[in-house]
Design a protein that fits this description.
One of its GO terms (biological process) is response to antibiotic. The protein is α+β, with helices and mostly antiparallel strands and about 240 residues long. It has eight helices and ten strands.
Amino acid sequence: MTDLPAFVGTLAAGAPITPVWDNELGGHTYRIDRPTGSEFVKWCPDHPEFDLELEAEKLTWAGKYVTVPPVIDHGRDSDSSSWLHTRGIPGETAVAPRWKAEPETAAKAIGTGLRALHDQLPVADCRWSWEVDDRAKLIKKPADLELIKQRPETDLIVVCHGDACSSNTLIAADGTFSGHVDFGSLGVADRWADLAIATYAIDWNYDPRFEDAMLQAYGIERDQDRIDYYRRLWDAT
């Protein structure tokens, strides 16, 4: 707790604070436990892939249609870092020890949750994009620019989560999907942009054997060509 940003203590106002997540960009997430329920504070240094002000906008929009953490406030604590303060929502991350011990249940909840997100968020009202051309701006190696020309034919345009990793699905005590978190990359794209990464994350967190359980719960047949393409794009960006 020695590295706790001072403003987190100010927001907590004496309530217990627990570090709950670190990301690869140097960001941290803290839980504040109050008698009225849990709150979360996400903090991150400025980065092209991490805009907490934008995430606050996306959460506020998505919250009209699906279960996401309600935004309490957001702001900057320095010239080079920002924060986002939200209320908690019911459920536990799909990578919690309980669900890692029940991978098939977790995989099904992830698939069900992703389908609900894609069905309920209205494409026509979404002003953000996660299409290949927009993501290509983040490609690091010139050789990977070939991916722009190699994109597969579009299957179905939806509002994608943008980071459909297992950790961003919440699961209720009975094993059913209960909500999503982390919407910084939300935007319109082909649904396989999410499905490819959701299956990728099944491999990272559980076992590749449970990819099909996730896809079946979503309600779609496996499309290995699209999975391979969007995984390559993910790795390139």
